[in-house]
Amino acid sequence: MNRIKIPVGPQHPALKEPANFQLVLEGEKIYEASVRLGYNHRGIEKACEQRSYIQDIYLVERVCGICSHSHSTAFVQAVEEIAGLQIPPRAAYIRTLIGELERIHSHLLWLGVAGHEVGFDTLLMYTWRDREIVMDLLAELTGNRVNYGINTIGGVRRDVSPEQLADISKGIDALEERTKYYIQVATEEATLIARLSKVGFLSHTDALKLGAVGPTARACGVDRDMRRDDPYAAYADLDFKVIVDNHSDVYGRTLVRAGELMQTYGMVRQLVKKMPAGEITVRAPRKIPAGEAFSRYEAPRGEDVHYVQANGSEKPERVKIRAPTLANLSAVSKMLEDNYLADAPIVIAAIDPCFSCTDRALAIKDAQKGAHGAMEWGNLREYGIEWHRQRGIDFSDLNKRFAKLMEKN
Amino acid sequence: MLNSLFSLFVFPGFFFVIFASLAFEYADRKIHARMQNRKGPPWFQPLADLIKLLAKQSIVPENADRMLFRLMPIVALAAATASILYIPLWRSNSLYAFDGDLIVVFYLLTLPTMALFLAGWSSTSLYSLIGAVRSLTQLFAYEVPFFIGLLAPCILADTWSLSGVAEYYAKMPAMMLVNVIGFGVALIALLGKLEKVPFDIPEAETEIVAGPLTEYSGWALALFRLTLDVELFVGASLLAAVFLPFGFGLPAWAAFVVYILRLLIIVGLITLLRTLFARLRLEQMVNFCWKYLAPAALLQLVINLCCKAFLSQ
Q1: Which has fewest Cβ within 10 Å: A323, A404, B214, B282?
Q2: Which letter does DSSP use for residue B63 in this model?
């Protein structure tokens, strides 16, 4: 059978962000898959070096639209560690509370997207409607639906009132009931199970070898969760189970996320009940002393890692971010192999990808000179024209040809 | 002469079919939306979509077969619309009834799928190509159960004319209960023909963009979308004539209301099914059709043959 190469992305209905997957097909089966990134690089790490720590919190928060709180918490944790700050317990609880509410909205969002990818739009409509409950809670607590802006170095910026805590309890009750229903749908609806189980298989060994994180790894039986293994904020005080599943496929990843939702509801209830009184922030210095720190955070998509190096000034020397999608991405090409083309969207979606968070830029090196080549705009233009001319495409009369074409029409 | 021209182009011909199809597209979309907890479109949305698409530029891909690419939407729409002439609507006899018109209707309803395949094939885009092959593969899976499911009632009625079938069952409404399995089979197969969830595999948005229609735009796309609406209307009318033949004897207006209600039942069922399920994979769909749908259709055939033998004694 003839092999054809089909591009999924950078612009494709299955992808919510630009990325490129080259799928080599044999009929309907995927023979080979490769991933290409780099369509959405924003240079946030570099931009962080030119801004003060306070500005960086808001910049880092915009790394991801869904798990924005994960990134800002990971960043401030690293800065607080360098500065030797101990945040008040109430601040730690509020951070954890927002983090867990964020997990709820992220997982519900994922469930809807997964439904859409397998053509089950009813699930999408239902989960996204119910997701509004938690979005409203977040807006009530922080003033924003996505980029909450609640973290600051040394604590949080907004306190929660007892009425808000009561609202949270009410919202969580409603969400728990709905989630139970979705678990029932996911485990009983025949066409959904047919589309999810035995799709995107990733063995336990491969998950470890390729460094998968988060629900993707936990669905392959990798028992790893930063909230339990390296507790930060208020997680040490909370009682929860790490959900691990052995299906190793998309169905397993769905079960893990649904199970995590149920655990999260329990955690939010504990947080609301145990919320300690007291200050919400300690005074932080404007200039952070020289040093470095490494911070880990269990984002909804997996382990998020921030490394911050301080040089004693008010700006960081270096900020390094590794979003969970990057860790999971190498597993995707493995998961895509031997599946059907129809499964490609759900396999890609099953890691809950967030491409712009993870995007990397390439530095082009001249192989002969061994130096980084920097090109001026004019040089780049000439290089492009020459490159195309060598391949038989001449742009020099393009304007003339275009005018002629317009005339003809 | 003038009379037949009127019935061909205006009522119950072309214009009636177009507007009825748009109305039922609205019904489908609105019911679908309400079942998904959405508000749904306003009543004129299908017409507005059609007018908008007709007003837009139609682009033909550079490498495409221009002739074939532009011809296919016209062929598809013409075939789907023509089939209404042989289907009994609210009267038990259709416009041009003859013995064997059932076969003509089958043929005319298969043509749009073939046109869709050729359209995808001729547009030379990778997504269109895969979509075209998928729609043809799917055709082989649902067509046989669809035919058998609809032919079984005809065996009992002892005629291959749709009008004859409708008349037979209108006289003996109790006999309809015999055909319940066939109704289910035909309804599910119709979902495949209309390319609706769970059988919207050829145009699976998240996989192959829009399948055979990926490269279509402007009036050509409008005609193809209209074809799918007409197919919904014609398919529902066909099922209503064979499986739900009520109210033929009533006065004209009452018969018409009953006819609309019958169609709404079928469209409602189709909408319910497409709300309830996730899209299947191609190989799962083919498996399902040959493993469950075709045997069920054959069972219906056997039941009807037995019934016929019993009745003729």
Answers
A1: A404
A2: T
Structural domain boundaries in chain A: 44-357, 377-408
In eight-state DSSP terms, residue B175 is: G
For residue B137, give its domain range: 57-312
Q: Do A345 and B283 touch (CB under 8 A)?
A: no
For residue B281, what is the nearest residue in chain A, using CA coordinates? A342
Look up tokens 């319910």; give the residue. B272
Residue B96 placed within a domain: yes
Asked if the structure places residue B286 within a domain, the reply is: yes
Look at A86-95, A190-199, A255-264 and tell me which has the smallest mean pLDDT.
Answer: A190-199
Quote the pTM value: 0.84
Per-residue pLDDT, A364: 63
Q: What ipTM was reported for this prediction?
A: 0.83
Chain A touched by B282 (CB under 8 Å) = yes
CATH of A44-357, one of 2.170.120.12, 1.10.645.10, 2.60.120.10, 3.40.50.720: 1.10.645.10
Q: Count up the domains in chain B and report the number.
A: 1
Question: Are B279 and A120 a contacting pair at CB < 8 A?
Answer: yes
Peptide bond into B12 cis (omega under 30): yes
| pLDDT tens digits, B137-185 | 899 889 999 989 888 888 888 888 888 888 888 888 777 788 888 889 9
For chain A, give the secondary structure using H, E and C: CCEEEEEECCCCCCCCCCCEEEEEEECCEEEEEEEECCCCCCCHHHHHHCCCHHHHHHHHHCCCCCCHHHHHHHHHHHHHHHHCCCCCHHHHHHHHHHHHHHHHHHHHHHHHHHHHHCCCHHHHHHHHHHHHHHHHHHHHHHCCCCCCCCEECCEECCCCCHHHHHHHHHHHHHHHHHHHHHHHHHHHCHHHHHHHCCCCCCCHHHHHHCCCCHHHHHCCCCCCCHHHHCCCCCHHHCCCCCCCCCCCCHHHHHHHHHHHHHHHHHHHHHHHHHCCCCCCECCCCCCCCCEEEEEEEEECCEEEEEEEEECCCCCEEEEEEECHHHHHHHHHHHHHCCCEHHHHHHHHHHCCCCHHHHCCCCCCECCCCCCECCCCHHHHHHHHHHHHHHCCCCCCCHHHHHHHHHHHC
* Residue B275 forms contact with A (CB below 8 Å): yes
From the list B207, B277, B284, which residue is nearest A14 (CB)? B207
**Gap between the Cα atoms of B109 and B248, Å rounded:** 24
